[in-house]
Amino acid sequence: MTKTKAPARGCDLACDAASRAMLDKAAQGGDPTAFARFAAQGAQCSFGASGLCCRICHMGPCRVSAKNPLGVCGADAATIVARNFLREAAAGTAAHSDHARHLALLLKKAAQGLAPDYAVRDQDALRRAAGAFGVETAGREPNEIALALADRLLDEFTSQEEPLATPRLAPKARQNVWTAAGVWPRGIDRTVVESLHRTNMGVDHEAAGLVSQAFRVALADGWGGSRIAAMVGDILFGTPMPVKSRSNLGVLRADTVNVLVHGHEPALSEMLAAAARDPLIVDRAKAAGACGLTLAGICCTANEILMRHGIPVAGNFLQQELAVITGAVEVLITDVQCVMPGLPLVAAGYHTKVVSTSDLARTKGASHRSFDVAGAYAQAKDLLLLAIENFANRDPDKVSIPDVTAPLVAGFSVEAIKYMLGGRFRGSFRPLSDAIISGRIKGLAGIVGCNNPKSKLDAHINAVTLELIKNDVLVLKTGCAALASAKAGMLAPEAALEHAGAGLREVCEAVGMPPVLHMGSCVDNARLLEAAAELVAEGGLGADLCDPPIVGLAPEWMSEKAVAIGCYFVASGVDVILGNPFHVSGSQEVSELLGEGARAVFGAGFHYRADPAGAARLALEIIEAKRARLNLDRKAERKLFDMKDRRSLNV
Ligand code: NFS
Ligand code: SF4
Questions:
Q1: Does residue 60 have its Cβ closer than 6 Å to ligand 2?
Q2: Taking the domain 412-629, which CATH number applies?
Q3: Tell me, which fold does domain 77-237 have in CATH?
Q4: How far is the CA of 84 from the centre of ligand 2 (A)?
Q5: Across residues 30-36, what is the average pLDDT?
Q6: Lower CB count within 10 Å: N or C terminus of the chain?
Q7: How far apart are CA 332 and CA 323, in angstroms?
Q8: In 3D, which of 406, 398, 246, 405 has the Cα closest to residue 328?
Q9: Does the structural domain 249-398 have CATH classification 3.40.50.970?
Q10: With a 6 A CB cut-off, is 431 part of the ligand 2 pocket?
């Protein structure tokens, strides 16, 4: 029986009204989008989806099946699936960590005066980081500390035999787990290289060892590169504190020059944020006939400048093309990661110029302006001037900006949470930990990751978030998942009154916080682990990261970076529920290694739930089980840690 497929409508593809309107406009005008290309792909390759396709050497590509179970070299399903998985985790770690390296190098250049537009902006963050890495601060100028710290951080990438130092920020009990499991990473670069070596043709063929290396390389991300990126970002640009802003495509304005910044590394976007306020730029925009200039972000760059400057968010991953379709974007500036090569294709139908800025990341059809931190501010101004110049080319007939925005509060760093709950002088996690112990808050859920056209934009993320806060789970968010909540109005404190369960609402009302806390970009998933470590250090919720009632979810993930994130959450003792599965179903052995196998080693594993209701149910079950193990289900009195317990935590 053949069915005629009705053309997809915006309301079937996305949750928010702005995206729906732009998808309908795209369908009418024939604008190319990822949504349409996804449909055009048809049924996706089942060998690829199950991880059973190997193209690691040129005797292949080989596809294995029950009928033909070995590749040319003799590799079986488990070897092929495990190798593919490890390569994904390594690539994700490489992306986050290269971002971190660039920031550490920028810190060094700033300290040496070689990047004059940057400086140590947050001395507390500098001292905190110096303390964590044993860098001497007494009697030293900030730049001296910054230089010594930058060198120390760069050692984290290049160290050979030395174990990575950053994971020592985890609770002692978790460190012992990693040592016992043999997964403590060495230098980040070496660990990534070793992963590529081991997956080369004819090297490591045992699934267990390959999966174990996936956890090791991921730890070099979460307790290495990503943590370093978050730390250095705070030093150079300020530790995020709660800030108000707005989200969705309606932040673009018909009467201003509109500039979008998209990508991940904050070095350029910070300069753009400053340059957008430069009187010269504002005057030039007015001279061009606009009322001013609007700068807004897409994806994780949006998160970076949102949480530090309150710069509005235009959209998350699947909205990058939809933003162009408003017809009101003069320039879309990109750096690295999650930038669709399809952008210039959609931009070709409008006056929008796509400008790439990282020499690592060029896109056919985009113009390229190589960004150099030595002349950062001047280059940022030039990019804005390019946008102002292009304003005259905007075609009013093609402009339709959806009048859709939502208010939000973002920027809940660990320091911000401490400050908010405990005040400037007594800032601590004690109140949060007390709320969990008393049961007003049942537990914490980290909901992270991307969008994926395999599911309706934001639908799974929003449904599972709603269900969890209804059940008194405080939700911590990063990345595009956080932006989904922003669009849905869930990052506003009022959302607690409307949607949160009674216990969570009480806590949120008392401190004036939303029930969903925006903690930043995807490298800021390291902040989620930092928050978990703070809870453990506070006492009363166990001694290890697998003890407190915490769970991780990645409902609509798509990137290799999400594979790395999932693996370091699990290796940290936090169960992870995926909304779409890894490409591992072709091997029972590998699937088990990531589920029960991981649980035996780390006390946590991966789960897969396609439906938000099922994901929420499982998340609540995990949280309840952890509460029961801590004897919290009986509203137990808080067990006070004595000094001996505290010392044994060593954090
Ligand atoms: Ni994270 Fe952020 Fe978004 Fe996914 Fe891409 S922007 S680094 S990978 S799509 S959440
Ligand atoms: Fe085929 Fe083995 Fe080469 Fe993979 S490594 S492509 S399974 S011969």
A1: yes
A2: 3.40.50.2030
A3: Substrate Binding Domain Of Dnak; Chain:A; Domain 2 (1.20.1270)
A4: 11
A5: 97
A6: N
A7: 9
A8: 398
A9: no
A10: no
